[in-house]
């Protein structure tokens, strides 16, 4: 093992040693609902105009000297590598002709959060937005206002000035949520593998989500990481035992997730991702061989529905989303072979697959992606080999900025699975090399 690989392994062991549950937190909110409630929400097309790299003129103590700003339905997100911080904001045109952008900021690894209220500084730009237009940003585009700690009213100056476009990322570079937008030890107020954390993942920088798939006793795939119902992940006096020993009804009747969410089925999660987000894909981390065929059925049904939806005369209604069945070991690969044969015999199109442990198998099995652990190093030769064979590479799970930088610079992958989406997205924008466009994705 070379020195760099040894360093990766030591860091991984250290990270795995910390798995305790953290205290609950509440997300800061304006007590009166803020100014957004008094205005007219900006359209999705208008929100695109806020995207770009912004210099932090005032407020570097909060976000550093530069931030990435990207958008999703109803949300303008400020993303930074400073303390893995982000801000989740909405935008609206106010009755007085101003355009407000407000919400909350947070450092997910610390109990630190607060409120943000910014205004579009240029009167002409604000007037155009309030007139329903979507003006492109320029170097004069400035968001100026204030921020606070906790629920205090914002008074500390914060000014962001647009300086350049974002590097292409939709359909190209994938910031993949590690079982959603929050790690177990985070303070972001949502449980891993919940619908709520998957929704949050898009708002903090992700365009795909990895979810952990286990089977209930009545053969329904659900999202849950551990084989047993550990206190770190669930609540409920009678919530005990193994996931596989309970039916879905028993599981939901006895348990909620740590922040009170229901344990979702895989079908519910994929439907939500397609319907309620702009996420481009899902990485189904199959925890047991028994879950492969049921998961493949759910993924195949979704792809069939999307294919029918996209065969219409209105391209604006098209939805491109790819669920990928993850194969972490030889036992799951054997189950994948059985699942493929079963689906093919039934005339069902087989969903795509991802192999974690062997890049050569990715190509020989006809899978679309390789998902290696970062602890084995950057492996640039294997990344190039996989890409030359028509597949993509997504490393897991990278949560430290120095290692993220090493992988972006040396491996130049197609994506990174992470619990620190804001940092990964921002570091890609700073130093990443743009991968080729994914086939079928919108440019």
What structural category characterises the helix and strand content? alpha/beta
The end-to-end span amounts to 40 Å
CATH topology of the largest domain: TIM Barrel
At the first level of CATH, the class of the largest domain is Alpha Beta
List the helices and strands and how they pair.
Layout: H1 3-16, E1 40-41, H2 44-48, E2 52-58, H3 60-63, E3 66-72, E4 75-79, E5 86-93, E6 99-107, E7 112-120, H4 123-130, E8 142-147, E9 156-164, E10 174-178, H5 195-203, E11 208-215, E12 221-223, E13 234-235, H6 248-254, E14 256-257, H7 266-276, E15 281-286, H8 292-310, E16 322-327, H9 330-345, E17 353-355, H10 359-364, E18 369-370, H11 380-388, E19 392-395, H12 401-411, E20 415-418, H13 421-431
Parallel strand pairs: 10-11, 10-20, 11-15, 15-16, 16-17, 17-18, 18-19, 19-20
Antiparallel strand pairs: 1-5, 2-3, 2-9, 3-4, 4-5, 5-6, 6-7, 7-8, 8-9, 11-12, 13-14
Helix pairs in contact: 7-8, 8-9, 12-13
Report what the structure shows.
The chain folds into two domains: 35-164; 174-431, TIM Barrel (Alpha-Beta Barrel). The chain starts with a helix and ends in a 12-residue tail after the last helix. It has helices at 3-16, 44-48, 60-63, 123-130, 195-203, 248-254, 266-276, 292-310, 330-345, 359-364, 380-388, 401-411, 421-431, and strands spanning 40-41, 52-58, 66-72, 75-79, 86-93, 99-107, 112-120, 142-147, 156-164, 174-178, 208-215, 221-223, 234-235, 256-257, 281-286, 322-327, 353-355, 369-370, 392-395, 415-418. The strands form three sheets. It has an eight-stranded antiparallel barrel with strand order 2-3-4-5-6-7-8-9. The chain contains 13 helices and 20 strands. Helix 7 (266-276) runs parallel beside helix 8, helix 8 (292-310) packs across helix 9 (330-345) and helix 12 crosses helix 13 (421-431). Residues 1-21 have low confidence and may be disordered. It is globular. A hairpin with a 5-residue loop joins strand 5 (86-93) and strand 6. The protein is 29% helix and 24% strand. The chain is an alpha/beta fold and 443 residues long.
């Amino acid at each position: 093992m070379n020195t760099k690989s040894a360093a990766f392994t030591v860091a991984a062991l250290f990270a795995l040693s910390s798995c305790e549950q953290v205290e609950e937190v509440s997300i800061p909110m304006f007590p009166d609902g803020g100014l957004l409630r008094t205005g007219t929400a900006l359209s999705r097309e208008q929100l695109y105009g806020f995207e770009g790299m912004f210099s932090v003129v005032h407020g570097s103590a909060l976000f550093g000297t530069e931030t990435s700003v990207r958008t999703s339905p109803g949300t303008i997100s400020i993303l930074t590598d400073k303390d893995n911080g982000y801000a989740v904001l909405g935008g609206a045109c106010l009755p007085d002709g101003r355009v407000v952008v407000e919400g909350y900021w947070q450092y997910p690894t610390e109990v630190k959060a607060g409120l943000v209220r910014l205004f579009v500084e240029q009167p002409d730009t604000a007037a155009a937005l309030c007139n329903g237009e979507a003006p492109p940003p320029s170097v004069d585009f400035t968001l100026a206002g204030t921020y606070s700690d906790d629920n205090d009213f914002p008074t500390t100056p914060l000014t962001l000035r647009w300086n350049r476009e974002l590097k292409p990322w939709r359909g190209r570079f994938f910031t993949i949520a590690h079982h959603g937008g929050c790690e177990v030890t985070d303070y972001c107020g949502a449980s891993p593998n919940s619908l709520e954390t998957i929704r949050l993942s898009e708002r903090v920088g992700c365009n795909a989500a990895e979810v952990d798939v286990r089977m209930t006793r009545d053969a329904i795939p659900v999202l849950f990481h551990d084989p047993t119902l550990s206190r770190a992940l669930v609540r409920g006096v009678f919530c005990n035992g193994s996931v596989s020993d309970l039916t879905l009804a028993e599981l939901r009747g006895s348990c909620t997730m740590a922040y009170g969410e229901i344990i979702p089925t895989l079908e519910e999660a994929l439907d939500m991702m397609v319907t309620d987000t702009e996420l481009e894909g899902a990485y189904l981390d199959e925890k047991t061989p028994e879950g492969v065929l049921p998961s493949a059925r759910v993924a195949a049904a979704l792809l069939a529905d999307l294919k029918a939806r996209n065969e219409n005369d209105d391209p604006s209604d098209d939805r491109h989303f790819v669920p990928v069945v993850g194969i972490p070991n030889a036992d799951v690969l054997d189950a994948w072979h059985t699942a493929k044969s079963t689906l093919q015999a039934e005339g069902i199109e087989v969903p795509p697959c991802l192999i974690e442990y062997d890049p050569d198998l990715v190509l020989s099995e006809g899978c679309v992606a390789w998902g290696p652990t970062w602890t084995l190093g950057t492996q640039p030769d294997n990344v190039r080999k996989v890409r030359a064979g028509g597949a993509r590479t997504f490393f897991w799970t990278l949560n430290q900025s120095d290692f993220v930088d090493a992988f972006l610079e040396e491996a130049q992958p197609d994506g990174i699975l992470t619990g620190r989406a804001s940092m990964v997205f921002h570091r890609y924008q700073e130093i990443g090399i743009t991968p080729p466009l994914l086939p079928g994705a919108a440019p």
